[in-house]
Specification:
The chain has 16 helices and 13 strands. With 427 residues, it is of the alpha/beta class. The protein is globular. Bound molecules: beta-D-glucopyranose. The site of beta-D-glucopyranose (BGC) has 13 residues, from loops. The site of beta-D-glucopyranose has 13 residues, from loops.
Length: 427
């Protein structure tokens, strides 16, 4: 049996990484302080804000039937309590464009970036953020909900704990001076420049204080405390309630960054602890959700001493982690054992310069997904990360995850063959 007819085959982006000029956001501010940890600022990014029609058309022409993107809180509510109708109109047009091309829009409310004002008020460690997020979710749903079947409240809600863990690993490595910073960076599924961040810390603290009123702003991707971790999930629950109160039929879920956590002999306890931290302890918060967005890029392995480096000779991606598309199937099967709802692969992808490696990655990852579907696991869709080569956070534009190349100087789009490889599954 192959994929069902209504299976969602799509590609994903996030507002800040592709739209350009997200000037009211915390990331924009952090990109522009003198001692920034960002390799470069996001600038006009892929100018997707103005070129979304071209991008959605390329996606649809290749055969894809879903587009996952995020709406930007810092645009929609640039100042506390001031909601911008024009920005809602913008996203209404993006959704209409999807529909005109037979593409299902999967909308994410928060993909890492927040308005500066929210961070000034304590950001993702402050109790008040739950109510602010609920109000924003309610506003977006009221305005756009009639057009939507799916909403992801928060992208990679577990990222703060992963960052806390990598900061700890990085400090240990630095102390031992045994390993380079690169090894630590490759253990997180997102673009971070830890070495630069540590060097800059003292100066950046003063500069942050000027912008956010605190030397250690709690942005979404800051190292989270256990209380902050729970707060993020309570914000998800509040947003879900707000959405359901307006449109009960919208399917609501959260997305998580989940490694394929593997134990080598003697590493079982470490692997169990990691699985619990990355996924299992969230179950009480998400067990009644309509779906879970699974985001996976690679595996991590544990031995008797803890996390072990990639196997000798393994192929590495530009992100310095292992090219290992089989991870996705393992994660789906393991998550399904305990999570009863539907699953959507909201992100899976690879940063490589040789596009034939991306084609290979997609084929192997989808073979795994297909096998899960054939076994009756309710996987409803697969969104490749990313539609476009884009702004990979602190790593700037150096990582090429895209199905479509973007010329930085001219913004000209060039589809890669992998776009058509993925599209062929949908056709
Ligand atoms: C994030 C994306 C990011 C991608 C690749 C995920 O962590 O949701 O924003 O670009 O992985 O690192």
């Amino acid at each position: 049996m192959a994929f069902p007819k209504n299976f969602l085959f799509g590609a994903a982006t996030a507002a800040h990484q592709v739209e350009g000029n997200n000037t009211k956001s915390d990331y924009w501010a952090m990109e522009h302080i003198p001692h920034t940890s960002f390799a470069e600022p996001s600038g006009e990014a892929c100018d997707h804000y103005n070129r979304y029609e071209e991008d959605i058309k390329l996606l649809a022409d290749a055969g894809l039937n879903a587009y996952r993107f995020s709406v930007e809180w810092a645009r929609i509510e640039p100042e506390e309590g001031r909601f911008d109708e024009n920005e809602i109109e913008h996203y209404r047009k993006v959704i209409a464009c999807c529909k005109a091309h037979g593409v299902e829009p999967l909308v994410t409310l928060l993909h890492f970036t927040s308005p500066v004002w929210l961070i000034k008020k304590g950001g993702w460690e402050a109790e008040s953020t739950i109510e602010y997020f609920r109000r924003y979710a309610s506003y977006v749903t009221e305005k756009l909900g009639s057009e939507l079947k799916y909403i992801c409240t928060i992208n990679e809600a577990n990222m703060g704990l992963q960052i806390a863990a990598i900061s700890k690993r990085f400090r240990l490595m630095a102390e031992q001076k045994a390993k380079s910073a690169k090894d630590a960076e490759g253990t997180v599924q997102v673009g971070m420049n830890f070495e630069k961040m540590m060097e800059n810390m003292k100066f950046a603290a003063m500069e942050n204080a000027q912008i956010f009123g605190t030397p250690q702003p709690q942005v979404f991707v800051s190292a989270r405390t256990p209380e902050g971790d729970a707060l993020v999930f309570r914000a998800h629950q509040a947003a879900k309630e707000a959405i359901k109160a307006i449109y009960p039929d919208i399917k609501v879920g959260i997305t998580l960054s989940i490694h394929d956590v593997q134990a080598l002999p003697g590493g079982e306890a470490f692997a169990d602890a990691e699985w619990n931290e990355e996924f299992a302890h969230y179950l009480p918060f998400i067990k009644d959700d309509d779906f879970l967005g699974v985001q996976n890029y690679t595996r991590s392995q544990y031995g008797p001493e803890g996390m072990v480096p990639c196997p000798e000779g393994a192929e590495l991606t530009q992100m310095d982690y292992e090219f290992y598309p089989e991870a996705l199937e393992h994660v789906i099967r393991r998550v399904h054992e305990v999570f009863g709802g539907e699953l959507i692969v909201t992100e899976n992808g690879v940063a490589v310069s040789d596009d034939t490696r991306r084609e290979e990655f997609i084929r192997r990852a989808l073979a795994g997904v297909e096998s899960c579907v054939n076994d009756g696991i309710p996987v409803k869709g697969y969104c490749y990360w990313s539609l476009l080569d884009n702004f990979e956070w602190q790593k700037g534009f150096s990582m090429t995850f895209g199905l479509i190349a973007v010329d930085r100087a001219t913004q000209v789009r060039t589809p890669k063959n992998s776009l058509y490889v993925l599209g062929a599954y949908a056709k």
